[in-house]
Design goal:
Blueprint lengths: L1 H29 L5 H37 L2 H54 L2 H6 L2 H44 L2 H48 L1 H6 L3 H54 L4 H42 L21 E11 L2 E11 L4 E5 L6 H8 L7 E6 L2 E2 L5 H7 E4 L10 H6 L7 H10 L3 H6 L17 H15 L3 E5 L7 H14 L4 E6 L10 E6 L2 E6 L1 H7 L2 H14 L1
Helix pairs in contact: 1-5, 1-9, 2-3, 2-5, 2-9, 3-5, 5-6, 5-9, 6-8, 6-9, 8-9, 13-15, 15-16, 17-18
Length: 605
């Protein structure tokens, strides 16, 4: 039992520490460093806040004086006293609201700038994370974490600054005003005891509700991920007649969400009822004291109205405190997930002061490269490949031999476990990733396009490319005529992931995009393996044009596409087993010759 209790206490400490760490991460956004305009807005907003609270305390006093004047004065005094005090009361109410709106308007830019900075920081960080992270992360869940986290920051900035502190300030002002007017500590004592019990009850129940809310969030994330995953695989769902299966899978997640949401709703009802009971007991206690005071002649009717007005004024922010604390705790939970994401280390990083790649010819060398995605599963074993500048080298072999892994290592999606990958003698780990990526153009097996126009997708190859540049790239990729045959030509939308285009059309757009980039090194990663023979032949012509004057690395499964390469490297089970030209390898009657014969017989069949 003691172990469980200790574990529970440890968990609570961990939660509190995490909440405190998250709050510290947000604090700099409230007081932006080096931005005088935003800091001035924060100061003015706080002054407006204090002004609104001070005037709000005066309003009930003016109301009490007006009531006393009405109860005691004659007709002439009514015009001069009560009416004037009533007008002053109205002005005070308007001024209070005016200061509140001014406060919100002044702080709005601070909050929105913070959201923008944080959203940008998160977006940039996600793109810096490694390929390993992205292939294991569920996209739907990731987008939900970011969405909730950014909203949580907005809430925390606004309400931490303008609710928690101001509430304490308002309670102090009200207690001081009541004591000043009534000269009786009993009123302040009842208010204090009510607030203490109210805050204790609210915080205790809210802590319980946060756990329920976290469970609800997990179910919400799971359901959202399943929905996005199913929609992205729309065709697969149709192919296997799995609509009902997907609906049942989604409904199962929503069932879990429903159960968690119901518990959250029930706990909210209990919290609201408990808060109402505590507030009412405090209100009745103070009003009873005031009623006794009026009856004994110690207080005026105006004092009774004053006490009632102040208790109502306390009730509103206290009720709001329950909501604010509840939402702040939830915002901290949401933000913790996002900040955990921001603290996720990038696996591949630039060395401090790393220079840009200096491309002299574009020669690529792999020296004794070893690599494994997991320690228990090595992929490449002491592989050495030399790709001279301006030549075309093909890497072939059966599935699982490590061909595509070499492409990922060259683009530095991963770092080698041992050995080195060099371009023109420069180890790619010693140069900036930006310059490395700029030097390499990739045409993958499955070209994924943005859900935008054909023009946008080709122009993506080079920032600020002119329309003429885009059209020339399309011509070089032999897709210009097809584009012009479309009703909207280059402004035609390609659909989600380019689904409105055929496989060959998508590949040509991908080739055009890479040609526009104009890289000295071209990596063709199974660029035609998913196409039919006729389309493959047409694409092959475009690829050969693309490779002119460049260093080309071709990763291929179909050997017919690489027979013209200057050199062919054969991999098997992560080992380099043969190297030579197409003719040389056929003469050796080795592994390449076996693969060639097998594919020729399959084509003939």
């Amino acid at each position: 039992m003691s172990d469980k209790k200790q574990s529970g206490n440890s968990g609570q400490k961990s939660e509190k520490q995490a909440a405190w760490n998250t709050t510290k991460r947000v604090a700099p956004f409230v007081w932006p460093a080096g931005d005088f305009d935003l800091r001035a807005r924060v100061v003015l907003a706080m002054l407006a806040l204090v002004g609104s609270k001070f005037i709000a305390i005066l309003a009930p006093i003016l109301q009490a004086w007006a009531v006393d004047d009405l109860a005691e004065a004659g007709v002439s005094d009514f015009v001069l006293g009560a009416v004037g005090l009533t007008i002053a009361y109205g002005i005070a109410r308007i001024a209070t609201n005016g200061f509140q709106q001014l406060r919100d308007a002044l702080f709005a830019k601070v909050a929105q700038r913070a959201l923008r900075r944080l959203a940008l920081e998160t977006f940039e960080h996600i793109h810096k994370l490694s390929m390993r992270y992205h292939i294991t992360r569920k996209t739907g869940g990731l987008s939900r974490i970011i969405e909730r986290g950014v909203k949580g920051v907005e809430f925390l900035l606004r309400y931490l600054v303008f609710s928690t502190g101001p509430l304490i300030l308002e309670l102090v002002f009200i207690s001081a005003a009541i004591f000043w007017k009534l000269q009786d500590w009993r009123y302040v004592g009842i208010i204090f005891i009510t607030i203490v019990f109210y805050v204790w009850f609210t915080f205790a129940i809210t802590e319980w509700r946060v756990k329920l809310r976290r469970k609800m969030n997990e179910q919400d994330t799971d359901a959202n991920q399943k929905a996005i995953d199913s929609l992205l695989n729309f065709e697969t769902v149709k192919y296997f007649n799995a609509e009902k299966r997907e609906a049942a899978r989604y409904d199962q997640s929503m069932e879990g969400y429903e159960a968690a949401a119901l518990k959250t709703s029930y706990s909210l009802a209990f919290l609201n009822f408990g808060q109402a009971v505590l507030i009412t007991l405090g209100l009745v206690g103070v009003m009873w004291l005031a009623a006794v005071g009026v009856q004994s002649g110690e207080l005026t009717v105006g004092d009774f109205v004053l006490v009632n007005a102040y208790m109502i004024q306390i009730t509103m922010p206290l009720n709001f405190l329950g909501t604010v604390y509840r939402e702040i705790r939830q915002a901290l939970v949401d933000m913790r997930q996002m900040f955990d994401l921001l603290e996720e280390p990038a696996e591949v990083t630039d060395k401090p002061g790393a220079p840009a790649l200096s491309v002299k010819g574009g020669g690529v060398t792999l020296s004794n490269v070893r690599f494994s995605y997991e320690k228990e599963r090595p992929i490449l074993h002491d592989v050495s490949i030399d790709v001279p500048a301006g030549q075309t080298v093909a890497i072939v072999g059966p599935s699982g031999s490590g061909k595509s892994t070499i492409g990922r290592l060259l683009f530095r999606f991963y770092d080698v476990t041992d050995g080195a990958v060099c371009i023109d003698g420069q180890d790619i780990r010693d140069i900036t990733q930006e310059s490395l990526h700029q030097a390499i153009g990739v045409v993958p097996q499955d070209t994924v396009l943005f859900n935008d126009t054909i023009f946008y997708n080709i122009a993506y190859g080079r920032e600020n490319a002119t329309r003429g540049d885009v059209i020339q790239a399309a011509k070089d990729a032999q897709i210009h005529d097809f584009i012009m045959s479309l009703p909207d030509a280059y402004e035609s939308l390609v659909g989600e992931r380019g689904l409105k285009l055929s496989g060959g059309e998508k590949q040509r757009v991908g080739i055009a995009r890479t040609l526009l980039k104009d890289p000295p090194i071209l990596l063709l990663d199974e660029a035609t393996s998913a196409l039919d023979s006729e389309t493959e032949h047409e694409i092959q012509d475009a690829l050969e044009r693309a490779g002119e004057g460049r260093t080309v690395m071709i990763i291929a499964h179909r050997l017919s596409t690489v027979s013209n390469a200057d050199k062919i490297v054969v991999l098997e089970n992560g080992l380099l087993v043969e190297t030579g030209t197409h003719a040389e390898l056929l003469k050796r009657k080795g592994r390449y010759s076996d693969l060639w014969s097998l594919q020729r017989s399959e084509d003939a069949a």
